Amino acid sequence: MHRVSEVPAVLDHSGALDAFAMHLRDQRGLSVHTVRAYRGDLLDLLAFARSRGAVSFADVDLPTLRAWLAQMADRSLSRSTMARRGAAARTFFSWAQRTGRVPTDPTIRLASARPAQTLPTVLGVRSAATLMEVSRVRADDGDPIHLRDWAMLELLYATGARVGELVGADVDDVDLETRSIRLMGKGSKERMTPFGVPAARALRQWLMVGRPELATVESGAALFLGRRGHRADQRQVRDVAHDVAAVAGVDDIAPHALRHTAATHLLEGGSDLRSVQEVLGHASLATTQRYTHVSAERLRASYQLAHPRA
Fold it and tell me: How far is CA 83 from the centre of its chain?
């Protein structure tokens, strides 16, 4: 590979990656999960490039990038993973060129895979109602964790919140008078999202009865707590969704499916696309539009079942 001597090579790749991670976190506002994923992708790229004779990121060229992405396809990695890795490379080299760490940006002419356009999992209205009712009845046993689970599921379905937004919420973010909650979305974008009477009822029970039983001096302002009084994490929310779905006898779901379900039911109920975009906190209307495809698929399936000449 030809090397441009005028620009110093990135021999200390860990220093460059640390600076890049700080840029993603502090200036781009990306989540810890995304920053970690991008860093891992770039370490994988550097290892691949070194196997082809490169010394540092400054030696990575377009053929190397294309070969890196091609060998991912041979390893049967998903299209979404390949798309993310391509995005990681483009974001890094654009930043590295601007900051003088590499001489040129080799990703300018790099084409990357697009994530497969799969329809998200969505519960039907009846199944969603069953899930909520089972979580409510389950909370009658007096266990504060079951009160928490009820409030979590009602709020996920009512607001379409991401799981990270849910566990990141504090008590002061909830306004039971106006039935709304302040959520901190991607890129540290804040939004106020409404919720209905059932979610308000569950939240009130949790805040008045369940949370005080679990709260400790280490709980801080966290809205949802674990058994030991610490802020609940995303793994606990996933366990709640799976456990209650099993008891309710509905399709096994991840908590993110309740976000998809909320969006689809809002659209099917007559809400306009931009309102749903605001509720979900999507930066682009194009992201919200995929839920119109879900509704169309459900309409087509219903038509084929009901119409005698379908």
Answer: 16
Hey, what are 205's tokens?
A: 């029970």
Residue in 21, 118, 112, 17 with CA at minimum distance from that of residue 72: 112
What is the predicted pLDDT for the residue at 275? 77
Give strand pairing partners of 170: 222
Compute the distance between CA of residue 177 and CA of residue 6 in angstroms, rounded to an integer. Answer: 63
- pLDDT tens column, 122-150: 888 899 999 999 999 999 998 999 999 99
Tokens in use for 156? 């996920």
CB contact at 8 A, 103 and 133 = no
pTM for this structure? 0.61
Provide long-range contacts, Cβ within 8 A and 24+ apart, for 44-49.
Answer: 44/68, 44/85, 45/85, 45/88, 45/89, 46/13
User: Would you state the structure tokens that stand for residue 9, as one six-digit string?
Assistant: 């090579």
Q: Tell me, which fold does domain 13-98 have in CATH?
A: DNA polymerase; domain 1 (1.10.150)
CATH 1.10.443.10 fits 125-255, yes or no: yes
Q: Is 232 left (phi over 0), alpha (psi -120 to 50) or beta?
A: beta
Phi, psi of 193 (to 5 degrees): -125, 130
| Amino acid symbol at 69 | L
The closest alpha carbon to 9, from 53, 60, 48, belongs to 60
Instruction: List active site positions.
Output: 162, 186, 256, 259, 282, 291
The domain limits of the chain are 13-98, 125-255
| Residues facing residue 180 across a β-bridge | 175, 194
Tell whether the model's pLDDT for residue 291 goes beyond 50: yes
Mean pLDDT of 33-61: 88
Tokens of 54: 């490169």
Of 156, 212, 207, 210, the C-alpha closest to 183 is 156
Distance set, CA 178 to CA 40, 192, 220 (Å)? 43, 11, 24
